[in-house]
Design goal:
Layout (H helix, E strand, L loop, with lengths): L1 H18 L7 H22 L22 H6 L6 E5 L1 H6 L11 E3 L7 H6 L11 E5 L3 H5 L4 H18 L4 E5 L7 H21 L5 E4 L21 E3 L5 E6 L1 H15 L4
Parallel strand pairs: 1-2, 1-3, 3-4, 4-5
Antiparallel strand pairs: 6-7
Helix pairs in contact: 1-2, 7-8
């Protein structure tokens, strides 16, 4: 991190040199500054980009750049955790609520914007060697939003399950299905997608290790159909009164936490 900040500081100096050259300086001097600045920029970018694990799913999945801002914090955390959370914005947001998790017990590695392939490629940043429990949430919501084919979503899930299983063979895994949203693209595919993800998970893990959670009953008094839109009262409301069409609110987060405790014996 210190090296990265130093490179940014040097880059600022060079940019200032370009912007504030005196009139007496030649074009060659300016070009030299520009070329050097460009080189420093490329070096600085190399420090910013994490060394993502390679995976077949990179062929069809875009990379979540938000991880660039987070991975150094994950890598520097050398504690051994009982629970690991992998996932996207649903757990990224939920984990920020006070009392949702115990920081000495659970490491939250969820990053907003993650698709299944992102989670796969980011696993190099995990230092815990022998967790008892792993939570994956959600199982591919971003993949639907990115309009990936069902075939590619299934393959991304297979690759992720294989990787988690190979690395944490004895761990228990809880997988949360994609929840109701206010986006038709997600709601129309949710049922078929969730069933496909469940089949992959069940084929990858022993039954006593796997706990599958469908959050659908937590929405709309428990009477929503498989393609229904999430009610406003279940979603995050912004200060201006607008409704977040994707993310459920604090009440649903804690209802899901309770469901994980009751159904999966997972205490975050």
């Amino acid at each position: 991190m210190k090296k990265q900040n130093l490179m940014r500081l040097i880059l600022i100096f060079y940019v200032n040199g370009i912007l504030f050259c005196s009139p007496q300086e030649t074009n060659r001097d300016r070009n030299r500054l520009i070329q050097t600045g460009a080189l420093l920029y490329l070096i600085e970018r190399s420090y910013s980009n994490p060394p993502l694990d390679s995976s077949e799913c990179s062929q069809w999945s875009r990379t979540n750049r938000e991880f660039n801002n987070r991975y150094e914090g994950f890598l520097s955390d050398k504690k051994e955790y009982k629970n690991l959370i992998l996932g996207d914005s649903t757990m990224d947001i939920s984990g920020r609520y006070p009392e949702f998790l115990k920081p000495n017990l659970t490491q939250n590695l969820a990053v907003g914007g993650n698709n299944l392939c992102d989670i796969n490629r980011q696993m190099f940043a995990i230092n815990t060697t022998n967790p008892e429990n792993i939570l994956l949430s959600t199982s591919g919501g971003i993949d639907i939003l990115q309009d990936l084919s069902l075939e590619n979503r299934i393959r991304s899930m297979e690759l992720l399950m294989e990787k988690i299983k190979d690395r944490f063979t004895d761990a228990n895994i809880s997988v949360v299905a994609v929840h109701p949203t206010q986006i038709d693209l997600v709601n129309n595919q949710r049922s078929v997608h969730n069933q496909a993800m469940r089949e992959v998970a069940e084929s990858s893990w022993e039954s006593f290790q796997l706990c599958w959670i469908d959050p659908l009953p937590l929405f709309g008094e428990g009477d929503l159909n498989s393609t229904d839109s999430a009610p406003n009262e279940n979603m995050i409301q912004f200060p201006n009164g607008e409704i977040d069409p994707v993310h459920y609110n604090r009440d649903i987060s804690f209802a899901l936490k309770t469901k994980l405790e009751e159904n999966c014996n997972l205490y975050l």
